[in-house]
Amino acid sequence: MATIKFAITPGFEEGGTLFTPEQLEALGTVVGDNAKFELTTFKQLYVEMQDERVEEVTQRLTEVGLQIYPAGFVSKSLITCYFCRGAEDAGLDIAKKLNEAIAGIQTPTPLKIGYAGCALGTSEPLLKDIGIVKMRDVFDIYVGGDPKSIKPQFAKLLVSGIAADNLSILVQKLISHYKEHAKGKEKYAKYVNRMTIEVLRDAIGGAA
Fold first, then answer.
1. Is the separation of the CB atoms in 97 and 168 below 8 Å?
2. First CA to last CA across the chain, in angstroms?
3. Each residue of 90-117: pLDDT tens digit?
4. What are the start and end residues of each CATH 3.30.413.10 domain in the chain?
């Protein structure tokens, strides 16, 4: 029987990415005994289940507040910090808007995008493909982090001092440029090194 895999997350609020008991109960009862779960490194839970029940199940999971995303070669839902300095100071609403703009876009390889509400960087944005760090009332964007390679590297500063209104636009431009210029299934960090920071900066019309 055909199966399909999709990703779920409870979203994020002040305090981080947290499942409620109701959501966990729904997961345990709605998906069926034959479903398989996979815990990912980017704060999503993959569910693999019978194709014929997916519409019914995703509707029920959405009703209890879970967010549904495609699995596989897409930009993942935003990986955030715990907003420990408070939702307003850390930019929770901005992070939600950014997530809506970028999650689930088809990409050459899975793309991990991190967000930190301050320079403490508890979501480890410099280890993500694209990292966003809120610095007071503006944002810095980093690109090319790679923690898994035998030669791991921190992301490099691409642009700084970005206003909240421009943040989603610039990240979308970065994703579009990657889709257009990646060589096959080229990892994002390798693509950044090949393209160079200067080329990417010009491509999105930004300045460091």
1. yes
2. 52
3. 899 999 999 999 999 999 999 999 999 9
4. 79-204
Architecture of domain 79-204: 2-Layer Sandwich (3.30)
| Residue extent(s) of CATH 3.30.70 domains in the chain | 3-70
Residue 32 phi/psi, 5-degree rounding, is 100, 160
Query: What whole-number distance in Å separates Cα of residue 174 and Cα of residue 59?
Result: 32
CATH 3.30.70 correct for 3-70: yes
Residues 46-75: tens digit of each pLDDT: 999 888 888 999 999 999 999 999 999 999
Question: 39 φ, ψ to 5°?
Answer: -85, 125
- The structure's pTM equals 0.90
CA 163/CA 137 separation, integer angstroms: 7
Q: How far apart are CA 156 and CA 23, in angstroms?
A: 37
